[in-house]
Amino acid sequence: MTEFKRKSVKEVLVSELIQDDLETFLYTCRISNIDNAIWANGMIILIFPARATEKIIERQFEGSRIYDQVVFVKYPKYSKTVKSNGGIFELALRNYTNHPRFREFAKWIKSQPEWNVKPETTS
């Protein structure tokens, strides 16, 4: 019989936190073949995990999550999808506001200096 265990995450380490404008974010998703992203508490979030090495896998078993990059866009109201201005690309959004870890993650992002930086726009 298989035994299932759940181990909670003790810490999240983020190497790079980036605020992007919506059009650049959607363009990046389109060219990277990303078809969905997380929405939580007024923002869309893309998480790029650190490349799996033996040391990183070991840290994950110890309760750490390590992300090379977290890119977010301020997007106050949830919708099931968001389209680029030209309507060429549509990104599905998964509402994770009710997920405690992502609610805390969004709260942490809002407390970082990057939250107040105005992103460069592509237009």
Class by SSE composition:
alpha/beta
> What is the approximate shape?
globular
The low-confidence runs, each spanning 5 or more residues with pLDDT under 50, are none
Give the domain tally.
1
Count of individual beta strands: 6
Give a short account of the largest sheet.
Answer: 6 strands, mixed
How large is the count of helical segments?
3
Distance between the termini: 58 Å
Cα radius of gyration in angstroms: 16 Å
Order of strands, widest sheet: 1-4-3-2-6-5
Mean pLDDT value: 92
Task: Report the oligomer.
Answer: single chain
Binned, the helix content reads 10-25%
Care to describe what's here?
The protein has 123 residues and is α/β, with parallel strands linked by helices. It has three helices and six strands; from the N terminus they run βαββαβββα. The longest helix is centred in the C-terminal third of the chain and has 11 residues, at 100-110. The N and C termini lie far apart (58 Å).
Which properties best describe this structure?
123 residues, six-stranded mixed β-sheet, globular
Explain briefly what this protein structure is.
This protein has 123 residues and is α/β, with parallel strands linked by helices. The protein has helices spanning 22-31, 54-61, 100-110, and strands spanning 11-19, 36-40, 43-49, 64-74, 81-83, 90-95.
